[in-house]
């Protein structure tokens, strides 16, 4: 099997789809709102690499870089080309088409990595692989799956693994494909305040539009700190929020916010409380503080991703 519906995944499936995708399956079981979708398994990556003879190119260019014959950038470009020029096996492509078409006719999707070394408690690998938003059409989905696989071999991803002594040859990637949402507000929640490591404080970052602007650090978001014990917001600060990303016919686009939007909060008190409640429920499920990406669509809270917070020590006061 090369693709599995997210609703059919659980934490035991992390060995075939990675923890990012497996965690989303657990959230379905928890009755948390998650955008519909499916995950292309490690098996698909491994077979694609084998069928196209890519492993020998990976080893060749990594060795040439190690021996000083080519730069890291040249190494990366050559490996990525081998992925983009590779052919998707027909039986694999048909299974991906079937899962994609089940989401709706030419539906727009987000395509994200779920690699076997991502979202570990000791090292998150966050942001090392590429994400592609608002992609539609059978063959476009296949093309961007290949690009997602190829992003394992970007210069920053290779360098990140090398500096942490992770074996490049052991890396493999599953690919998450989910329906796009068009949130009014979105952002990131840390269920334990990463600024002071206090477990009773939840840190919420939010802004208008798609969550990419917050997750990538492209804008200064609104910040809220919610105290679980006292059941209230103890701190809030407006971010600049100069622009937002929204869905468009050609993918996503940047839209500059009005002065009124910039000088207003992107979340009201009620939605902060509702969001914190959902996120603490997720923390309880996984048994450790979580770094959660979310969006609100027509008042409905969606969770896009949940992974362990990657600091090592938490103040238990």
TrEMBL record:
**Which SUPFAM superfamilies does the UniProt entry name for this protein?**
Glutathione synthetase ATP-binding domain-like (SSF56059)
Report whether Nucleotide-binding shows up as a keyword of the record: yes
User: Main EC class of this protein?
Assistant: transferase
Sorted UniProt keywords: ATP-binding, Kinase, Magnesium, Metal-binding, Nucleotide-binding, Transferase
Q: Please state every residue range assigned to the domain named Pyruvate phosphate dikinase AMP/ATP-binding.
A: 16-311
Needed cofactors: Mg(2+)
User: Which pathway does this polypeptide act in?
Assistant: Carbohydrate biosynthesis; gluconeogenesis
**Coiled-coil regions, chain positions:** none
Where exactly are the transmembrane stretches of this chain?
none
EC number(s) of the enzyme? Answer: 2.7.9.2
* Keyword Kinase attached: yes
Spell out the reaction equation it catalyses: pyruvate + ATP + H2O = phosphoenolpyruvate + AMP + phosphate + 2 H(+)
What GO terms are given for molecular function? ATP binding; metal ion binding; pyruvate, water dikinase activity
**Single Gene Ontology BP term?**
gluconeogenesis
InterPro entries in the record: ATP_grasp_subdomain_1, PEP_synth, PPDK_AMP/ATP-bd
> One Pfam family this chain carries?
PPDK_N
The family this protein is said to belong to: Belongs to the PEP-utilizing enzyme family.
| Function noted in UniProt | Catalyzes the phosphorylation of pyruvate to phosphoenolpyruvate.
The name this protein goes by in its record: Phosphoenolpyruvate synthase
């Amino acid at each position: 099997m090369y693709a599995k519906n997210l609703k059919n995944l659980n934490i035991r499936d992390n060995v075939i789809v990675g923890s990012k995708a497996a965690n989303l399956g657990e959230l379905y079981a928890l009755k948390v709102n998650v955008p519909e979708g499916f995950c292309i398994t490690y098996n698909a990556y491994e077979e694609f690499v084998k069928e196209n003879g890519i492993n020998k190119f990976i080893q060749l260019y990594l060795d040439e870089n190690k021996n000083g014959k080519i730069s890291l950038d040249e190494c990366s470009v050559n490996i990525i080309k081998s992925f983009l020029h590779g052919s998707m096996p027909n039986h694999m492509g048909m299974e991906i088409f079937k899962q994609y078409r089940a989401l709706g006719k030419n539906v727009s999707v987000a395509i994200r990595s779920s690699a076997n070394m991502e979202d570990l408690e000791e090292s998150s690998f966050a942001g090392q692989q590429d994400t592609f938003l608002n992609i539609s059409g059978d063959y476009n989905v296949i093309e961007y799956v290949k690009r997602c696989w190829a992003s394992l071999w970007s210069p920053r991803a290779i360098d990140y693994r090398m500096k942490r002594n992770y074996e490049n040859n052991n890396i493999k990637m599953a690919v998450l494909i989910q329906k796009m949402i068009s949130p009014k507000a979105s952002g990131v929640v840390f269920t334990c305040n990463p600024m002071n490591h206090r477990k009773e404080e939840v840190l919420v970052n939010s802004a208008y539009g798609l969550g990419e602007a917050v997750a990538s650090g492209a804008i200064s978001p609104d910040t809220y700190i919610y105290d679980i014990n006292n059941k209230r917001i103890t701190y809030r600060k407006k971010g600049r929020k100069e622009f937002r990303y929204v869905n468009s016919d050609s993918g996503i686009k940047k839209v500059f916010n009005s002065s009124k939007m910039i000088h207003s909060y992107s979340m009201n008190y009620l939605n902060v409380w509702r969001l914190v409640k959902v996120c603490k429920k997720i923390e309880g499920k996984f048994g450790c503080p979580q770094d959660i990406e979310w969006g609100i669509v027509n008042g409905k809270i969606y969770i896009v991703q949940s992974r362990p917070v990657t600091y090592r020590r938490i103040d238990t006061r």
